[in-house]
Amino acid sequence: MKLHDLRGLVLPLLLLGAWEYASRQDAAGAFAFVPLTQVGSAWVELLGSGELLINLWASLVRTCTGLAVGIVGGIGLGALMALSAPANRLIAPLFHALRQVPMLGWIPLIALWLGNGESAKLLIVSLAALYPMVLNTFESLRQVEGQHREAARVLMLSRWQQLWLILLPAALPGIAAGVLQALAFAWVTSVGSELFLSSGAGLGSLMMNAEAAARMEIIVVCVLCIGLSGYLMSWLCTLLTRRLLRWRPNR
Amino acid sequence: MNAIAHALPTTAATSASTGALTIRGLSKAYPLKGKPVPVLEGIDLDIQPGEFVSILGASGCGKSTLLRLIVGLDQDYQGQILLDRQPVHGPGLERGIVFQDHRLFPWMTLQQNIALALKNHEMPATQKDRLVAEHIALVGLSGYEQAYPHQLSGGMAQRAAIARALVNKPKVLLLDEPLGALDALTRVRLQQELQRIWVQERCTVIMVTHDIEEALYLGDRVIVMDAHPGRIREDLRIDLPHPRERDSQVLHGYKQRLLGELVGH
């Protein structure tokens, strides 16, 4: 690994140092900023009891399921709106109005409809992933160059062939950017929905329980886990995107 | 019923040499600020099967529009376009086109790009593979089958575009300034290649260009067009057998004459 790759670690390490310094000032500091050693032992304890993995896994599975639903639905809806003017006129006003409601604003309504179980959370995560997918699919399909469309017509491709072989691949860079956004939204709302609908497993539920028990170190472990997992997922997503878009010139 | 059945063999017999293009009274106008501006006016043209016709003219003479009408990308015109006496309606695989920009699909390899032209042909996959390989070899790109368009040079991409247009065995190949964006050396080399390919395939070719030498070197006929509105000024027959010598005295004589006409004395 080259030296400049390590520069990203400078700020986190400084932050850790400041945290540790604050925890050693007085009793109030030690409560608000739990010492790193305590965080470390909480980590070991949670790993040992399996609590951390069970809750992390629950959050990850929900995120991926909701993301998959959002991607498939979003590409479908975005493509329908981009390719059919009547459908766009029919759907666009409602879609753009609903989009203004913040994700957390849906939680009371969805909780009333579906209770606070898994299906309610899944619906919230799927909706969060759906919005960026619809927007990106729509925009990138609209921007497919006329040259590509003409070449496809000259080669006598049917409408379906044009969609599958020409329009969607041409829109893939934009759609992939949408997936990256959708992933971030899905992860955030997955943990967020657990904070509000705290039933069942999940990192958010674990945090809520720790707060009730005044276990600051567990909250910190959860926050670290959420950050690291999100970072890892978007990194994997970027790798996958690069593989799918290897036909593009390196810039 | 019988009449139709009897008619079939005769059409088959006449199709021994197909690719005759007839254009009658062709006019085309684009609306500009509500008023129609004529781009092409009264074009009459008869092109024999297997003929190589160069269309020469300054920019704005509607020569590219003419090709777009023949290939069927634009169907809003007056007059008639007949291919082997049948009116042309929209695009069709019996007419192939190569544009100035190669228009390969960047997400497909060279091989996939060329195979795409055979997508809706009913033939076994092995035969398709063979046709694709043959045409890649025809344009001298063997070994680059798996390359993506951005990995090819401009000249190579244009060769690939020619292979994609030819793999359907079109009756008419339309070339819209196919070498216009290439550097001078690549251009000369590809002109030779085009001549070799045409001698081998013998389909009807209509090439639009603004390069006098290119038009004369390749064309059995050179159609000179005037601009505003686009119309045919001259129909020049170049009676020299192919393959031709680039420094032929005959071609040089024509070149001086056309230069004088087009640029002014």
CATH 4th-level superfamily of chain A: MetI-like
Structural class of chain B: alpha/beta
Low-confidence stretches of chain B: 1-16
* Poorly predicted runs of 5 or more residues of chain A: none
| Helical content band of chain B | 25-40%
Strand order of the largest sheet of chain B: 6-7-8-3-9-10
Largest sheet properties of chain A: none
What does this structure look like?
The complex is a heterodimer of chains A (251) and B (265). Chain A has a single domain, classed as MetI-like (MetI-like fold, Orthogonal Bundle), CATH 1.10.3720. Helices cover 81% and strands 0% of the residues of chain A. Chain A has helices spanning 10-23, 27-32, 36-49, 51-83, 85-98, 103-114, 118-142, 146-154, 159-196, 203-212, 216-244. In chain A, α4 packs across α10 (203-212). Chain B is α/β, with parallel strands linked by helices and 265 residues long. Chain B is built from 8 helices and 10 strands. Chain B has a 6-stranded mixed beta sheet with strand order 6-7-8-3-9-10, with helices on both faces. In chain B, α3 (110-116) packs parallel to α5, α4 packs across α5 (154-166) and α7 (212-218) crosses α8. Chain B is globular and about 50 Å long. The termini of chain B are far apart. At the A-B interface, α8 and α9 of A face loops of B.
